[in-house]
Design goal:
454 residues; alpha/beta; Rossmann fold; 4 domains; five-stranded parallel beta sheet; 19 helices; elongated
């Protein structure tokens, strides 16, 4: 059992003896000091978890001891003892960082309870710090799987912008890891000790999104039985992730724009403004530019959110990462389920490389978890995976299209085939495709296609 050390400081010998006997009986290791100066000397020689000190003592008093002890050891918890005439001093001590104060005279049970709470609080602080350290370690770049050039560019960008206050917009298909990158940005920034709060804009009924974002006052609407903080308020000093922002109702988009501009908001049912310091990260699996053209999303809001755009590529565009992802999830679910699956057959490896992975990284993880948990084999074979994995990997036909491919891929393939059919003549190809030459040029640039002669 870990030692729990307490330093009792008081110029009253009877009080010191009483505290030593009481706290020793509770299995604490207790040292005594008769003045603030003697206490500081002991603090130089030994580490203590808790100090129980009188406020009024000759020479160096309890307030000065509190300041010195907290400067040298910020984690130490200090309990101040005070008589009725020095309550104001005790309150001032709390402002300076004292954990609690206790009024003299007090019983053995009272001091035991206060000291017990001090130790419990210190334990929570240490555990919370360790948990945050573990979480931050989990989201270090080297712990995110991806060696492809596309993902390396993403990591470089995240490293470059993590410590800024600028809004970030993460675009990419479902399952590409947008939330993982959002957390990497947060936990690699100076805000890492602040909260990381997420709200899924697509998962809430329209009438509740405003309350979830900004909070509400008691009685603001039917069912509002108490005052509630919103996600913006909860994220103060940290990061707010607006997941699937393109699903936000149009009426709320204007209110969000005002918050981003003014950095303040009002709870629903309140006229009082609340200022917050929040870094905004947004995600979408839709083409927001197209949503703007359709009138579904405000262009001025998108400009505010899209200060730093980052695109997460789908798995099919970074096939060199598939083997790494598969191995990563194999190890993860072996460990979580106390299994010892050692690898894959060559047929499975080939299948993984040929498959289209419409669900991206999330789909890979789901297949691997299921296989590791349900297999009876040391080496995974095609029989350990659902048949859909075979049927949905249809080969490209001679048009260049593939079952399960995206509209963007179909469009790209159609543009290439049309250009080939007309010897690379963009004017003729645009006419056949029913678009302007300028639109075709933009598409060629968007898809990274080589422009052929007119």
């Amino acid at each position: 059992m870990l030692e729990k050390r307490i330093l009792v400081v008081d110029d009253d010998n009877l009080m010191k003896d009483f505290l030593k006997e009481t706290l020793t009986r509770s299995e604490y290791l207790v040292d005594l000091a008769s003045s603030g100066d003697e206490a500081l000397d002991k603090l130089k020689l030994k580490e203590y978890d808790v100090i129980v000190s009188d406020i009024r003592m000759p020479k160096l008093g309890g307030m000065e001891l509190l300041k010195a002890a907290r400067e040298n050891s910020p984690d130490i918890k200090v309990v101040m003892m005070t008589a009725y005439g020095t309550v104001e001093n005790a309150v001032e001590a709390m402002k300076l960082g004292a954990f609690d104060y206790i009024m003299k005279p007090f019983s053995a049970d009272e001091i035991e309870l206060v000291v017990k709470k001090a130790f419990e609080y210190k334990k929570l602080i240490i555990e919370n710090r360790m948990l945050k350290s573990e979480v931050a370690g989990k989201y270090r770049f080297q712990n995110i799987v991806g060696k492809s050039p596309q993902m390396q560019k993403v990591f470089e960008m995240v490293d470059m912008i993590a410590d800024s206050r600028s809004s970030v917009f993460l675009a990419g298909e479902s399952g590409t890891g947008k939330e993982l990158i959002a957390k990497a940005i947060h936990y690699n920034s100076s805000r890492k000790d602040g909260p990381f709060i997420k709200i899924n804009c697509a998962a809430l009924p329209e009438g509740l999104v405003e309350s979830e974002l900004f909070g509400h006052e008691k009685g603001a609407f039917t069912g509002a039985l108490r005052q509630t903080r919103g996600r913006f308020e909860m994220a103060d000093g940290g990061t707010l992730l607006l997941d699937e922002i393109s699903e936000m109702p149009p009426g709320l988009q204007a209110k969000l724009l005002r918050v981003l501009q003014e950095r303040e908001f009002e709870r629903v049912g309140s006229g009082q403004s609340i200022q917050v310091d929040v870094r905004i990260i947004s995600t979408s699996n839709r083409n927001v530019e197209e949503e703007i053209k359709k009138g579904n999303f405000r262009e001025d809001l998108f400009f505010r959110l899209n200060v730093i755009p980052i695109h997460l590529p789908p798995v099919r565009e970074r096939k060199e990462d598939i083997a790494l992802l598969v191995q990563h999830f194999l190890q993860k679910y072996n460990q979580e389920n106390n299994r010892n699956v050692q690898g894959f057959s060559e047929k499975v490896n080939k299948l993984f490389m040929e498959y289209h992975w419409p669900g991206n990284v999330r789909e890979i993880e789901n297949y691997l978890e299921r296989a590791v948990v349900t297999t009876k084999n040391k080496i995974l074979t095609p029989d350990d995976f659902p048949k859909e994995l075979f049927f949905r990997k249809a080969d490209y036909d001679d048009s260049g299209l593939k079952v399960g491919c995206t509209i963007a891929e179909m469009e790209k393939a159609l543009i290439l085939k049309t250009l080939d059919a007309h010897a690379g003549n963009k004017t003729k190809a645009a006419e056949i495709l029913g678009v302007s030459s300028r639109t075709l040029r933009n598409k060629l640039q968007e898809y990274g296609l080589k422009e052929e002669k007119e």
